[in-house]
Amino acid sequence: MFEGPVQDLIDELGKLPGIGPKSAQRIAFHLISAEPPDIDRLTAALNRVRDGVPFCSVCGNVSEADRCRICADPRRDASLVCVVEEPKDVAAIERTREFRGRYHVLGGALDPLSGIGPEQLRIRELLTRIGERVDGVEVSEVIIATDPNTEGEATATYLMRVLRDIPGLTVSRIASGLPMGGDLEFADELTLGRALAGRRAMA
Amino acid sequence: MFEGPVQDLIDELGKLPGIGPKSAQRIAFHLISAEPPDIDRLTAALNRVRDGVPFCSVCGNVSEADRCRICADPRRDASLVCVVEEPKDVAAIERTREFRGRYHVLGGALDPLSGIGPEQLRIRELLTRIGERVDGVEVSEVIIATDPNTEGEATATYLMRVLRDIPGLTVSRIASGLPMGGDLEFADELTLGRALAGRRAMA
């Protein structure tokens, strides 16, 4: 539709997730009239990510140093490890301000059709962490917080099998059920089934 | 929430129009696992736009050459000039495939509070084009297609005053009214008022 550099930029922006043709056009025209230093800051940030993002050597979360802020924080309970698929899941759980333990980022979920088996995930590192203790503290509980979808459930089942025979270790799974503010009438069968199966005695 | 380069990228992406914190995070994590050449194509496109986008010397649309594709196309009716605010408006009208004339891009709309007066818009260039003829063809009609909002209406009124005394020139304004597929009941008063005032005899 446009010519030259503008269309090139619209095309490239349109390849990003969640950016449709209209958003790409809107962003491109915003950038045309942006100050060069603003664009430079964006390209600099892109180049740093392109050159490789450092990951925490302990938990696999994105990190600036060898250990991420959470793994380096002695106030975080090292006996409680929450296993998630991706760094963005760490961010989601941190936003709840409910969890004071540590994390372990798998780097994905089991998906044999895409060639992602247990070796492609950081499962061996999880076992090493449990075996060697975390900061000298014995891991007493692993909370499996993979997504409640096909791949995440398969990963949770696999992890359960691997971890269940470790003495003194509790393995738990985050609850599935109706979202808060949700409506029973409009819940899908699977979610409602889970909500029923996961019912808890009221205090 | 994140550390180092990832958070920098999320921050920069979040400054783009229409990109909220969640989208910025999603795009950043997409880019972390993207291939370096994909990121290079995006930064290259950004750098070209940063270094300045060429505009058509005739109509002011974005262009690769001195004249844009539309101004260089002899099949486009040079006697009919559609005046728009921005290059993206040219794209919007081109998508209708209804218009076979030429364009004139003002580069904005009158907005005295933001310091945009007639001198900041390409109005002088429009008068020169009309005076000198376009490709040897006399301009017979100028269609004012500025946005139907405060600034666009003010710009249309101003242009009408400037252009109305040019002999042999028709000045028209695109119609305002109910959008197709719209609902009378939910139309705002201004739009419905315009739709009534702009009523046309049925054939």
Characterise this structure:
- Two copies of one chain form a homodimer.
- In chain A, 40% of the residues lie in helices and 10% in strands.
- With 203 residues, chain A is α/β, with parallel strands linked by helices.
- Chain A folds into two domains: 47 residues, RecR Domain 1 (Helicase, Ruva Protein, domain 3), CATH 1.10.8; 97 residues, Dna Topoisomerase Vi A Subunit, Chain: A, domain 2 (3-Layer(aba) Sandwich), CATH 3.40.1360.
- In chain A, α4 links the parallel β1 and β2.
- The first copy, chain A, is globular, with a radius of gyration of 21 Å.
- Chain A starts with a helix and ends in a 6-residue tail after the last helix.
- The interface between A and B is large, with 51 and 51 residues.
Strand order, main sheet of chain A: write it out.
Answer: 2-1-3-4
CATH class of the largest domain in chain A: Alpha Beta
Strand count, sense and barrel status of the largest sheet of chain A are:
4 strands, parallel
- The run of helices and strands of chain A is HHHEHEHEHEH
The whole-angstrom Rg of chain A is 21 Å
**Roughly what is the average pLDDT of chain A, rounded to an integer?**
90
The proportion of strand residues of chain A reads: 5-15%
- Give the % helix of chain A: 25-40%
Largest interface, Cβ cutoff 8 Å = A-B, 51 and 51 residues
- Morphology of chain A: globular
How many domains of chain A? The number is 2
Protein name (chains A, B): Recombination protein RecR
Family (chains A, B): Belongs to the RecR family.
Organism (chains A, B): Mycolicibacterium hassiacum (strain DSM 44199 / CIP 105218 / JCM 12690 / 3849)
Keywords (chains A, B): DNA damage, DNA recombination, DNA repair, Metal-binding, Zinc, Zinc-finger
